[in-house]
Amino acid sequence: MTDTIVSYLLFIPPILLIITIHEYAHGYIALRMGDPTAQLAGRLTFNPIKHIDILGLLAFIFLRFGWAKPVPINPYNFRDVRKGTLYSSLAGPASNFLFAIPCGIILRFIPVDIVALWPLRGLIGACMMFSLILCVFNLIPIPPLDGSHILFSILPPQYDNVKYVLERYGIFILLGLIMLNAIGLPILSLWIWPFVMFFGRLFAGNAAFFAFLVEFF
Q1: What pTM was estimated for this model as a whole?
Q2: Residues 6 or more apart whose Cβ sits within 8 Å of residue 125
Q3: What are the angstrom distances between the C-alpha of 106 and each of 99, 111, 117, 204?
Q4: What is the spatial distance between Cα 213 and Cα 122, in angstroms, rounded to a whole number?
Q5: How far is CA 99 from CA 40, 51, 211, in A?
Q6: Residue 172's domain spans which residues?
Q7: What is the rounded average pLDDT of the residues 50-64?
Q8: Alpha helix locations (H) across the chain?
Q9: What is the spatial distance between Cα 10 and Cα 76, in angstroms, rounded to a whole number?
Q10: Given a cut of 70, is residue 22 above it in pLDDT?
Q11: Alpha-carbon distances of 80 from 4, 24, 201, rounded to whole Å
């Protein structure tokens, strides 16, 4: 029980770090593409408090996937609306994926048999794990997740009806999937975990990755 509580507490700093990286990347690329909305709203910052969504944070801690407070973006400010939407939407998941790589490499070289390094393994492993989770979760093409904005930016105009339906009902579909996952119908897990397992093992190596899973998950 004590180890479980410590694990939960150990996860909070990595979660705050990866959601901050994610949202900052959105705002930064949006600014580079011509939209200063995130900057003007005070969201182009590395202060994690600005990016916390309480429900999303709790979901991360207890369900092992979650979300942050979306950075405000006005696509009409982009010099090219479709490219600006695509690049700014991709920026968050891409930043998490790239951040997971050095975390995995560091985890690979932390000896698993040195007890004193247990907190360090937990912090670095959680940074890698939750980065991959946030990346792949946000690529789901359902509003309000980034994947929907990516999808809408590349769909040809004749599929606008798909966009309207998803924009209207997307949040309910997403909440339904989360509830189904929570009661044992792992539709979201089947999307998330193969991605996390593949890249986690690739970046950290089998031994370090599975040692982290056994210790902390």
Answers
A1: 0.93
A2: 103, 107, 204, 208, 212, 216
A3: 11, 10, 12, 8
A4: 10
A5: 26, 18, 20
A6: 2-216
A7: 86
A8: 2-32, 37-40, 54-63, 81-108, 118-138, 146-154, 160-182, 187-204, 206-216
A9: 41
A10: yes
A11: 48, 21, 38
Q: What is the pLDDT of residue 66?
A: 80
Which of helix, strand or coil describes residue 52?
coil
Tokens found for residue 103? 């975390």
Q: Which pLDDT band, with edges at 50, 70 and 90, does 64 fall under? A: confident
Q: Which amino acid belongs to residue 96?
A: N
CA distance 3 to 169: 40
Give the whole-angstrom CA distance, residue 147 versus residue 143: 8
The tokens for 199 are 């890249």
**Interaxial angle between packed helices 81-108 and 187-204, expressed in degrees from 0 to 180 and rounded to the nearest 10:** 60
8-state DSSP, 186 = -
Instruction: Provide the token pair at 46.
Output: 């590395």
Q: Give the chain's length.
A: 217
Q: What angle do CA 148, 43, 68 make, to 5 degrees?
A: 45
Structure tokens at 17: 């770090």
- pLDDT of residue 94 exceeding 60, the answer is yes
Residue 78 · residue 35 · CB < 8 Å? yes
* Cα 91 to chain centroid, rounded: 11
Q: How many domains does the chain have?
A: 1
Let me know the angle formed at the C-alpha of 92 by 156 and 69, rounded to the nearest 5 degrees: 105
pLDDT class of 67 with cuts at 50, 70, 90: confident
